[in-house]
Specification:
The structure is a homodimer.
Chain A lengths: L8 H4 L5 H11 L8 E2 L2 H7 L2 E6 L9 H9 L4 H4 L3 E4 L3 H12 L4 E6 L4 H9 L3 E5 L6 H12 L2 E2 L6 H20 L6 E5 L4 H13 L4 E7 L4 H8 L25 H8 E7 L1 H15 L9 H7 L9 E6 L6 H8 L20
Parallel strand pairs in A: 2-10, 3-4, 3-6, 4-5, 7-8, 7-10, 8-9
Antiparallel strand pairs in A: 1-2
Chain lengths: 354, 354
């Protein structure tokens, strides 16, 4: 972790509370899209429960990341704006920061690995950000960022370990609660993808306040199940791997200094999903909801479809957190016979402190 | 055209007016999904105009057809409900009717060609409808339907030539107008797919009343450009082909007795789209909006992307009318290098009375 510049480090380094999430929800109205909460009667029947899918893949820039980025960047004091913002990201956070900075008229530097997907580099540039490429095998992105910040100034926008980023992501849950109310649904459980944990922590804060009996679960790629282990063992754990999953967006080393305490308190457990379970979920989303979910965005849906989080007789909300997947990759990953809506395991294989 | 049973033929055979559309909008609240009006800042930049996409592919059953089907079936008098409803369709209307009938507790018989896509047959059955298959080369579906109606009774639910079906589809436009208002957009032009013309006619009625300066355009597959020719020639024309386009959902012989008079009055022109232009639009929708559009549902977006309907300096709304496409077909159709957002022709190739 690099240090944040002096402008507002004290403010952003605090663990957010429900007041921060509500303030974020107000600040983001008219800025982010109120993405739909989708439902498929046929899929419900096959699952034996009610499944509501929050389609954040339909968010502007194709993922929820705009929420936290805008909430954070809009808090930068006037006098610090001219120096711009700096972020590290290979994809969704990059586009969220680039878009938020553009909306607010602030310059953005995004430090991206030179092997990041072409479409993500191009979109980030197209949004007006300056993209600085580095070689992942030879350079640390933190070193490049720190050198840049020392020389030029600017505000670092962390992907998850920031009070206002977490609160912004939590606005997703405020919408879910309103939309479920409109649909006459009481939510028994919410499952969201977890990498650094910004989205899941923000959601957990909102539900703890507004719907405290709803169980909160994380979903992670196999081999990156640090949250599942952390919750089981009562202590923050990390992942030894740095690759080996198709879920590029959430292959993070561990949860954050700010996100983990929230998750430890409010998340019941986390589920680990195989590449096969994730691609089956991507295909089901395509067939039943007509949406594109990228691998990392599909883990929560996969947890339900694979029977790892039991949907039977319950109302479950899954967050589809992003859809930035190249059409060719999507086709390659989802090729094969559909298993749409067919839970692959019926036995309870939940992990953690249930 | 077969005759409708006596129960309500007089009512359903009239050309609808704006009052019918508004009544449909009220009746469908809480029944159909208020699908989002999506927008991509990057795509807007590339097009040089503002493009809003009404994502009816995200509608329940994967197309707008539930609107008209529910609006029509809910009007069936109590004493006629026990005999059920009958519909002909190979896909989207079938699922819309099956779902609406199920919601209203009415039996449904759907007459489908035996070579209809497996997923559409299975979904229609899964929604509780009885599917009667026939051989398109040997039998006329109208004969099967008439024989069934004579023997068993029941109410025929036409796919487009019905006052309440057209009015129901028009509820799409009421949502568009509300959503565009929320987004601060004044709509210069609306483009919607046109087969039999139920959706386009319903939309035209709503805009003629609520936003009369908005131009209304149809989009059709090449070889099925009967509306374009009809509007140019001032007389309803038909198509000589019965296949040869990937747009299975809108390969209709001509517009209807009720839809054509509405379109002749309110539609400015129609555009014909090639299979290549349609698949480019499907790919762009995947990349920029993260949604699945089936070929017939993508013609309106294709008209703008291909430059046939000029988006520059204007606010355009395109309706993505359905998303019922098998993942393997989608992958095959959209394989190849993306042309996302790149208008392929800049010259004005609009057809009809502009």
């Amino acid at each position: 972790m690099t240090s944040s510049p002096a402008t507002d480090a004290g403010e952003t380094g605090k663990i957010p509370d429900i007041g921060d999430v509500i303030a974020a929800g107000e600040r983001l109205k008219g800025v982010v899209r109120r993405t739909p909460l989708l439902e498929s009667p046929l899929l419900n029947e096959r699952l034996g429960g009610r499944l509501l899918l929050k389609a954040e893949c339909l968010q502007i820039t194709g993922s929820f990341k705009l929420r936290g980025a805008y909430n954070r960047i809009s808090r930068i004091p006037e006098q610090a704006r001219a120096a711009g913002v700096v972020a590290y990201s290979s994809g969704n956070h990059a586009q969220g920061v680039a878009m938020a900075a553009r909306m607010l008229g602030i310059g953005a530097i995004i430090i991206m690995p030179e092997d990041a997907p072409r479409i993500k580099r191009e979109n980030t540039r197209a949004l007006g950000a300056e993209v600085v490429l580095y070689d992942r095998r030879k350079q640390r992105r933190e070193d490049i960022g720190e050198a840049y910040l020392r020389e030029h100034g600017g505000t670092l926008v962390r992907p998850y370990d920031d009070r206002f980023v977490i609160a912004g992501q939590g606005s997703t849950a405020l919408e879910i609660l309103d939309q479920a109310g409109e649909a006459g649904a009481e939510i028994d459980q919410v499952i969201a993808p977890c990498g650094g944990g910004g989205l899941l922590a923000g959601i957990a804060l909102a539900f703890a306040d507004r719907s405290p009996t709803t169980r909160i679960y994380g979903a992670e790629p196999e081999g990156f199940d640090d949250l599942a282990r952390s919750l089981r063992e009562g202590k923050r754990r990390g992942n030894s791997r740095i690759d080996g999953s198709i879920c590029d967006a959430i292959m993070t080393p561990c949860t954050g200094d700010l996100t983990y305490p929230i998750l430890a308190r409010h998340a019941a457990a986390a589920f680990a999903l195989s590449d096969e379970e994730v691609t089956a979920a991507m295909r089901t989303a395509f067939e039943h909801f007509k949406i594109v979910i990228e691998p990392g965005g599909a883990v929560a849906l996969a947890a339900v479809l694979a029977g790892k989080c039991d949907p039977r007789g319950r109302t479950s909300v899954v967050v589809a957190s992003g859809g930035n997947c190249d059409p060719a990759d999507f086709a390659r990953l989802t090729a094969g016979r559909s298993q749409a809506g067919k839970p692959q395991k019926r036995e309870n294989t939940q992990k953690g402190k249930i």
